[in-house]
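hey m, so remember when u said the tokens were messed up on ur end? i reran from scratch. heres the input so u can diff it against urs
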Amino acid sequence: MNNNTSETSPQIYARICGVLYLIIIITGIFAETFVRSKLTVSGNAIATADNILISEKLWRLGFSASIIMLVCDVGVTYLLYILLKPVNKNIALLSTLFRLVSISVLAVSLLNHFAALFPLENAEYLKVFTHDQLSALSYLSLKAFSHGYNISLVFFGCHCIFLGYLIFKSGFISKILGILLIICSIS
């Protein structure tokens, strides 16, 4: 029996990884710069709630962009593992696990982005609260999202340390990129 299975080229994996990273960058910038940063007023729950209500579709679109970002991030995580596994399988696996935990924490935190809408609905059970109280509850969800995002960065930073090491040792990616990644991950 002739076994003609062919390995997919690492260059194809790298290109797919690059495309997914571009999608991550675009959707991440959109969600943060054009949605959360535009609609959130620091320290002002009422203004923030009013902005979210006025631009509810934009708020939901920002949530959707973040979900797309996370889905692409899982793909990037897998592809980085495949590409860097030959360098050191155990460290590549450890790097992958840290990144998957980061993605998971961010995904759970992203629920708070969406939950900011719940107190602003016109549901009957919410009529016992004042507008100011509902605005404060919505803002609390955004604060929870922010803290969850920061926690996810701790795990992402650990991932980047190991990723930087793997890039440095790889021989097929510039060593300076590995060094820069390790330096950046510490911050």
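this time it looks ok to me. The chain has a mean pLDDT of 93. if urs says something different then somethings off w ur setup not the seq
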